[in-house]
Structures are given as structure tokens and as C-alpha cells.
Amino acid sequence: MINATYWQKKRVFITGHTGMKGTWLSVWLSKLGAEVFGYSIDQPSNPSMHSLIYKQHYDGFYEGDVRDYNSLKKIIDHIRPDVIFHMAAQSLVRHSYLDPLYTYTTNVMGTVNVLEIARQYSSIAAVVCITSDKCYQNDGFDTKFKENDKLGGNDPYSSSKGCAELVVSAYNESYFRETNSPVIVSVRAGNVIGGGDWAEDRLIPDLFRAIDFGHPVIIRNPNSVRPWHHVLDCLSGYLALTQKIFVSGNEFAGAWNFGPTEDYNKPVSYIVDRVSNLWGDELKWETTPDRDNKEAQALSLDSSKAVKRLGWKPRLDLDDALKLTTNWYRGYKDGDDLLELTLHQIRNYEAI
Ligand SMILES: NC(=O)c1ccc[n+]([C@@H]2O[C@H](COP(=O)([O-])OP(=O)(O)OC[C@H]3O[C@@H](n4cnc5c(N)ncnc54)[C@H](O)[C@@H]3O)[C@@H](O)[C@H]2O)c1
CA-CA to 34 of 20 to 30 Å: which in 94, 145, 197, 287? Predict the structure, then answer.
């Protein structure tokens, strides 16, 4: 499905390259032969996968803010990318309650800035805007969302991603309909799991932090069902879509869901138990009710469009995804070479 011939020497610009997904994508694209450039405001966590893997200064990685149009434009002018993956975001629901202004300005105006700049370059083949499965209006029923379902979001993060979707759609309709203009897509995926995540208030990082510090992990919503998704399955969707754009252009513009199959939709408690079994006996957990939580209890995506039109499908079952994730954190704990471990997991994934 993912073919290096599409990526050799392609200049790929990733906003949010220091994030969890951005780091996996950087490593994978470099392996495929692309020239990778990045633009991020910070290391989003300490430790961060990016700084563990990229230990030396690299000229193509820039520090900058997607809210700053001039700074972003200067870098894009300089790089002249073939493809942009726009991932930079305030990506945490809980944090979005504390700082809605930063969340909206980054997630919405950051997207406006990227598209505003992209429309000045017909040399860009594709702009892939990473939003979220939370962009849909979720009334709490067990709906499988399709791409044309209503957008919404009850918390600032989800709503900012719904807004970013509206921005992508309006820019698409207004500026990117010419055959020689960049193809703009938005991609919606669910809760990603995989090694290298240390974000706050995400289940997998919370579990491995608890293991590290030797204290019980506090689980707020053990019964919430989420479409857990391995980061490589998610990124393979973004890459497969971009490859189609290289060949067929505008017919692939628009919104795309990349979600896991049904058997991935498991409650939080299942993930905790399984990781605990895979790790051994070091993980203890307690529950406390989360009165502040307004996240929907159930959320799932209908990815049949990607399956039919891209030939994409998740390749890992949930158990394999959890094993890969646990092995990565084991490698971290054992002091392994994390670039090599990450590449090893990518190579094995490509061979499935
Ligand atoms: N991880 C998930 O489970 C998940 C699920 C659905 C959607 N997403 C989306 O995927 C994308 C990547 O997620 P992630 O988990 O890698 O995120 P992350 O939190 O690990 O990293 C966020 C990245 O964005 C950068 N950033 C934040 N604010 C910025 C700003 N103002 N200017 C420039 N850079 C800024 C950070 O420096 C970092 O590189 C995000 O858009 C996120 O909303 C993630």
C-alpha cells in the first residue's frame, strides 16, 4: 500500500513534527526517501519522542508558531514543499477547557494560515489537514460517523476541530478547484496508540507514566468506548491518500475518515487490563468518577470510503497494536536505540 517510489526526494513539510504522530511520520517519510521538514512551537512533552529520536540539530526542523502567518510563510517560501501535513494543534480535550483561546487560535487560525499560504503555491501537490474524529456533532448515541455527517463538538478542542473542518471545506470550495491548484484534504482519525506518546491526559501515556513512577494509574472513565487505533494504521491512511493525490489529483479532495475496525472499539478498562497483562505485574489502577468530563462515551468512525476508494484498511488487530506499543515503551525503559526500534516497527508493519 505504501510505496517508496512516490516519496523519493519529495519535499514534505510537517507542522507539529515534534508531536507523537509527527515524529512517527517524520521517521517513516525519511525511510521512504522523502526530504522531511518540520515546524513546531515546542516539544509537546518531557520526555518527547522527537527529542529522543532526533538527538542532533537538524537544519530542516524549525521552531515556530502556526498562528504567526509571517513566520510560517517565510519557512514555506524557503522550503517550497511538495506536500504539507498540517498536524500542529493544541491536541488535548482537557487542556482545551483551561485554554480555549490558545486552542481555537492554534487549531482554527493555524489551519487558515496554512491554507492561505498554500493557495499561493501551485507547486504544492497536496495539503493534508489533520483534524479528529471529535469534529462530528456527537449526541451520545452510538453513531458511526460518515464524512458528510454534521460537524460540531461540545468542548473547545472538539469544536475547534469542527471549525478547522469548516475552514478546509470553505477554502476548498473557494480557492482549490482549479486543476493546477494544490489538493486539499482533511483527515479524521480516532484515539491513536503507539510508542512515544507522553501527552497529558491520554490513556497510554498515563499508563506508562504510572509504571515509570510506580504509582497506580487513575482511570476516570473506565467504560468509555473509543476507536483505538495504532499510529501506523492511522498514518498509512494519510500516506495512501496522498499517493492517490500524486496520481489522480483533485478527485481525492475533501474529507476522509480513518478509523479502526469494530474489534478495536473497546472500553478504557479493556486497554488498561491488556497493557497490564502485557507489561507484567507492575501496573496498578484505581478509578475516580470524572464529573468534569463532557466527552461523549461512545464514538466510532465509518471508514468505508477509504476502504473502497483507497484500498486502505487497518493492518493490525488491537492486540498487535497494544503489543507494539508495550514493546516500544519497554525499549525506552531498557535504553534501546529508539530510532532503530521505531524503524523496526515500521519495517515489520510494511511487511504485513
Ligand atoms: N494523538 C491522538 O490520539 C489524536 C487523535 C485525533 C486527532 N489528533 C490530531 O493529530 C494531530 C497530531 O496529534 P499528536 O498526538 O501528534 O499531537 P501532540 O500533542 O503530540 O503534538 C502537537 C504538535 O503541535 C505542535 N504545536 C502546538 N501548538 C502549536 C503552535 N501554535 N504552532 C506550531 N506548532 C504547535 C507541538 O509543538 C507538537 O509538535 C493533531 O492535530 C491532533 O489534534 C490526534
Answer: 197
Place of cell 497494536: 321
Verify whether ligand 1 is closer than 6 Å to residue 339 (CB atom): no
Residue 202 located in a structural domain: no
CB of 345 closer than 6 angstroms to any ligand 1 atom: no
Long-range contacts formed by 28-31: CB under 8 A, 24+ apart: 28/2, 28/232, 28/235, 28/239, 28/346, 31/343, 31/346, 31/347
Q: Are 322 and 274 in contact (CB under 8 A)?
A: yes
Among candidate residues 250, 299, 242, 328, the one with its CA nearest the CA of residue 7: 242
Give the tens place of pLDDT for each residue, 39-83. 999 999 999 999 999 998 889 999 999 999 999 999 999 999 999
Identify the DSSP state of 150: P
Residue 51's φ and ψ, nearest 5 degrees, are -75, -20
Quote the DSSP letter at residue 182. Answer: P
Q: How many domains does the chain have?
A: 1
Q: Whose CA is nearest to atom 19 of ligand 1?
A: 91
Is residue 236 in contact with ligand 1, taking CB distance under 6 Å?
no
| Residue 238: inside a domain | yes
Q: What is the pTM of this model?
A: 0.97
- Before 81, cis peptide (omega within 30)? no
